[in-house]
Design a protein that fits this description.
single chain; about 280 residues; alpha/beta; Rossmann fold; Alpha-Beta Plaits; seven-stranded mixed sheet
């Protein structure tokens, strides 16, 4: 993966209203068939201590629905399990969902009938149960941390821990998982994920693109796991990094509020094109 340090300026320096991003959005909006793909946490939904309390910003929900009504393809690409992502996204009809970092895909979000569910073999299920037990034991004495079970993995959350607690929890988790060498370990914002299935958001986005065949894609993400999706974007696409950190994305906004501003701006551009 190529990280472009030329686009790792201060957060918000490329935000809504900047000449570069405005020009990119105007050019993107002129294409008849476009796809807007969005991560959930930290992009549509502000971060909260309890992941079960996360909800998308109402202004972003409204803008996404405007884009959908104007004929724009909408996709949600997240590390959250597919069912959880679908239940909280407040998505328009026909949206596509990619959950568990690309391991779960539903090309028709209305009913999920065509969703690719994760089906573990007996051996995988046994290894996942053993890994979960090992991690739970390792973190039992570390306060303000918890485990999240996923269809093919386990996630260690440290958002409520202080810096020392979080570092200790991550070290203990890695040591506990050392006997599971085939498990993929992915570090994100205040999380460490252990997955039996090796998939990523870039693979998920590629699958959506191959199915919908848009002329261009806009993808917005905030986490290190989103870099796999930024890395596969083409010159005609628009990649938007939310928040600080080095990135392969061409543009940057500061926070979910600025994501909402971008979506509203794009909706206006598409509506004016079609009007």
């Amino acid at each position: 993966m190529t990280i472009n340090p030329g686009h790792s300026r201060n957060p918000g320096s490329d935000g809504p209203g900047s000449a570069e991003l405005d020009a990119a959005l105007r050019q993107f909006a002129q294409r008849p068939q476009i796809l807007v793909a969005l991560d959930f946490d930290g992009v549509l939904a502000p971060f909260v201590r309890d992941p079960d309390a996360a909800a998308p910003m109402p202004s972003s929900v409204a803008a996404v629905h405007r884009l959908s009504r104007a004929g724009v393809h909408i996709a949600y690409i997240s590390g959250r399990p597919l069912a959880d992502l679908r239940s909280r996204a407040e998505a328009p009809a026909g949206a596509v969902f990619v959950g568990s970092h690309g391991a779960e895909v539903a090309m028709n979000g209305d009913d999920g009938a065509d969703a690719d569910a994760v089906e573990l073999s007996t051996d995988e299920a046994d290894r996942l149960a053993a890994l979960n037990s090992r991690l739970a034991s390792a973190l039992s004495r570390t306060p303000n941390t918890w485990l999240e079970s996923k269809p093919a993995g386990v996630v260690v959350h440290t958002r409520g821990a202080d810096e020392d607690e979080a570092a200790r929890a991550l070290e203990q988790a890695r040591e506990a998982a050392a006997d599971f060498p085939t498990v993929k370990v992915t570090k994100g914002h205040h999380v460490l994920e252990f997955a039996l299935r090796h998939s990523n958001k870039g693979e998920g986005l590629s699958r959506v693109r191959s199915s919908l065949r848009p002329e261009a894609v806009l993808f917005a993400g905030d986490d290190t796991t989103d870099e796999d999706a930024f890395a596969i974007l083409r010159p005609e696409d628009v990649g938007i990094k939310v928040g600080p950190g080095e990135t392969a994305a061409r543009y940057r906004v500061r926070d979910p509020q600025q994501v909402s501003d971008v979506l509203e701006q794009l909706a206006e551009l598409v509506e004016s094109r079609d009007g």
